[in-house]
Amino acid sequence: MYRERLELTDRVAVVTGGSRGIGLAVVTALVEFGARVVIADVLDEAGEASAASFPDGRVSYVHLDVTDAGAVERTFADIAQRHGSIDVLVTSAGIANHQPSLELEREAWDRVLAVNATGTFWCAREAARHMQDRGGSIVAIGSMSGELANAPQRQAAYNASKGAVHLAVKSLAIEFAEQGIRVNAVAPGYVGTELTKQGVPDQWWDDWVRRTPMGRLGAPEEIGSLVAFLASDAASYMTGSVVLIDGGYAAW
């Protein structure tokens, strides 16, 4: 009984930003539990290669800029028509910025908020349109940085964007509950992905590990397994939750 509640057999999942890193780990976990997955990303070469690496055509790829509301609407409608439903959405598309606030240009601020926060909302809204008749699960990839201002990096735009994601998740969970749509967020700590490494000095890594009680960075597959749980019926009474998975960082 309990094992069956974790199964996602033949459910249709969309994973934005699923071509690499945490997103790709999520795709892998969902496939292992039986889902058919559509990767939606702007990294066409990486997305197509990642989709092709899975057997039996269980994973496909579509180009999608999550900041383009019209493109999001058209893409989700097309996915629902081609696959018959959208049962799971995971919003993993995201970018970071580590500039000090006094040096941060308006365009950089706007871009981080547009991808991380606004893009999450557009995708959640359109997925919900196609879940209304049968219910579904939406899982946003937030961050512990949406709950606290972590150091030593300066990332006000990123922190603000993830805080917005967390509160949007709580708001949408209430709004969509009557349609049987659950909305939750996973808030990772430091995870060893290429996005995390971009432009990061070595001393930051040392500091992150030192400040994390478990003494290491997380692995993408650890995030993927939690997302798969939230997507499944095993989490059927969870909605509006922001689940920290940070090696104890926020417990200090």
TrEMBL record:
Keyword Oxidoreductase: yes
TM stretches of this protein: none
Keyword set, alphabetical order: Oxidoreductase
Taxonomic superkingdom: Bacteria
Keyword Transcription attached: no
PANTHER family in the cross-refs: BENZIL REDUCTASE, CHAIN DEHYDROGENASE, PUTATIVE (AFU_ORTHOLOGUE AFUA_4G08710)-RELATED
Protein family membership: Belongs to the short-chain dehydrogenases/reductases (SDR) family.
Name listed for the protein in its UniProt record: NAD(P)-dependent dehydrogenase (Short-subunit alcohol dehydrogenase family)
Organism: Microbacterium trichothecenolyticum
